[in-house]
Amino acid sequence: xxxxxxxxxxxxxxxxxxxxxxxxxxxxxxxxxxxxxxxxxxxxxxxxxxxxxxxxxxxxxxxxxxxxxxxxxxxxxxxxxxxxxxxxxxxxxxxxxxxxxxxxxxxxxxxxxxxxxxxxxxxxxxxxxxxxxxxxxxxxxxxxxxxxxxxxxxxxxxxxxxxxxxxxxxxxxxxxxxxxxxxxxxxxxxxxxxxxxxxxxxxxxxxxxxxxxxxxxxxxxxxxxxxxxxxxxxxxxxxxxxxxxxxxxxxxxxxxxxxxxxxxxxxxxxxxxxxxxxxxxxxxxxxxxxxxxxxxxxxxxxxxxxxxxxxxxxxxxxxxx
Length: 321
What we know:
By secondary structure, the chain is α+β, with helices and mostly antiparallel strands.
């Protein structure tokens, strides 16, 4: 796969230079588009990590991210119809982000949570392409052969398998009461959230470090503090980063979802986190072997909750909070 890096970066540089010469000087940037549609919703730091460092200089854009093995919170939070096994989940720290609703009470302790993974910081995050450029790439399992050629990937490679799985997840039939969409650009993510929630007065839930920024990402046990905020809306658009060469977010709109802002304090070093969390209150049609069911020891019908770690966001209407 190492031989693919320079080829892909050279290809993207050429593509972007051509696009830059032909685009209108009045074209709105992805960040400008966000600010236009969501004027009261600042882009959080954790989402900025997926944006190019310099949107105006094509030579400075870094779009390629290293493909990684799939974690349950990356693609399989949404895979209600696709079950798993405890053996497959063994050693996967992402399952620690699942919790039961009664664990929102002050004094409740979490499992070990790593909101930011060190491996991602050292190897780089995949980057959200501007919509105009994202539309230049096919994005369909029926076009997989063409996609692999464009990325110079062996069809029998592990990377090809990961990309195939991501495309299939994006095309999977929606669950009852849910709408699914895979956003390949910041603009398309905004469009989906606004169109589904029928308002542009939105709050974007994620996580943030309150008293000091985490300099050395690590797993910590946190204690829930007084002051948990429950947002009144039962609707949310929740987006999860996928494993793909550039940033793809699997977003789903659910109507039986409660959203929270949870103050957490780490036992070990006093790190404070304001953590977004969502609870899916109607899981009656979920697969009984869904990761959350196996980890929490519950059955379909029991609310399933999870904190939002890096690469996971929830758009919630402000007007209802």
